[in-house]
Amino acid sequence: MTILVTGAASGIGAALMVRLGDAAIGLDRHGADIVCDLADSAAITAAAEAISGPLRGIAHVAGLPGTADPATIFAVNTFAPALLTAALLPKLADGASVVAVSSVTALRCDWTPEQLDALLSGMSPPAMEGARAYELSKAALNRWAVRTAAALRHRSIRVNTVSPGPVETPILANFEASIGKDRIDAAAAMVGRHAQPLDIADVIAFLLSDAARWINGTDVKADGGYHAVRAAGG
Questions:
Q1: Considering 78, 98, 104, 134, which one is annotated as catalytic?
Q2: How confident is the model at residue 166 (pLDDT cuts 50, 70, 90)?
Q3: 221 touches 227 (CB < 8 A)
């Protein structure tokens, strides 16, 4: 059985493809086994139909930063994982694992679970600037993961999220532009460096594995201790 990795052509997704080896099949807008624009719901449906089962896991790594168009941020970061997972449910093996890459910036979102549920149920996202849209898109992704973990428990399919801090990927400059380079640099100064893609890929690989069989509906903060330092007053 194989594991589907979205955003497989670069950054964390590419590192995860190497980490998983022959067990992985990649999806991206280009340079992957399956070519798909995750902002296009019809393309997602077509890609799901082209994927052979059974799958023992899905890693939703693809995502857009706050410099992108807000509507597209929500389409790729929040709705694509939900649509693709739903389309692939018949091909997911019982006991499979689904992992989505979120972000520590989701903690900045002040929406209630009820508001996030309304967004996930089809409410149009309100107009907002890109950095705020990014935070909300990831908070909604976390809420989706919790809801989906509960809904799929009868099939022992686990759903978790991983929330990195800044990672040395091709879109780090975009995060510097949308969040502020001073804040990104301060995060690195607090913990000694930015994460490398493999640092996050290894966490995803663990959650996909049977070693994480009793972890479900959880967000793992892979931030090098950034939030611990802040909580300790460092």
A1: 134
A2: confident
A3: yes
Amino acid at residue number 125? P
In the block, residue with structure tokens 């898109």: 137
Using an 8 Å Cβ cutoff, are 175 and 16 in contact? no
CA distance 158 to 146: 10
pLDDT of residue 234: 63
Residues 97-127 pLDDT 10s: 999 999 999 999 999 999 999 999 988 888 8
Token look-up 């989706």 returns 144
**Matching residue, tokens 């330092």:** 229
* Predicted model pTM: 0.95
Residue 224 near residue 41 (C-beta atoms within 8 A): no
Q: What is the pLDDT of residues 51-78, one digit of tens each?
A: 998 999 999 999 999 999 999 999 999 9
The yes-or-no answer on residue 134 being catalytic is: yes
Cα-trace Rg, the chain: 17
Structure tokens at 20: 């998983």
| Encoded amino acid at 46, one letter | A
The two structure tokens encoding residue 184: 């990104």
